[in-house]
Amino acid sequence: MFYRPEQGHGLPHNPFNAIVTPRPIGWISSRGADGRDNLAPYSFFNAVAYFPPQVMFSSTSAKPDRDGTKDSVGNIRETGVFCVNVVEYALRDAMNATSGPWARDVDEFELAGLDKAECETIPCARVAAAPANLECKLTQIVQLPGEANFAVFGEVTGIHMRDDCMTDGQFDVLKFNPLARMGYRDYSVVREVFELKRPGE
What we know:
The chain has four helices and 14 strands. It has helices at about 15-20, 70-80, 90-95, 110, and strands spanning about 25, 25-30, 35-40, 45-50, 55-60, 80-85, 115-120, 125, 130-145, 150-160, 165, 170, 180, 185-190.
């Protein structure tokens, strides 16, 4: 099968995000200028550089009260900071609860029954139970082609790793089993890893 996206795919559901899988989930916490906390998952997320460490996520829809975007991007525009919270399998239901189209004044931490912790390097809340948290300062917001498509880039200024997720000095994903986004309504979980050495190593 071949199709041109501008002409449509003719399938019951869009296959694009089922092709680009698995995708890590950026569970983004942010705080608005009014002091309200927000927490929402984004499946267009990844790390993009080592030195200095940098990450990005993209928001692709809008709310009527947020000037053409969503609460996360709106808050980050106001304050210039955000935190990425790693999603483990055990927190899948809490993560899903925060994905709803909640009103601007809803605190998703409270809605999902999640304890907050304050970040160390930025004025923002983080998910206390997450296996890891990346505290970030905004570097740029890039408007992408298409309505309400914004890519948010941040430099990581602080990193939290849960002590029980460490094995012999390494962050061990098998200790918590990261959740990944697939296509449609599907998710996957990391339960197995293997090593490949690069040529010449």
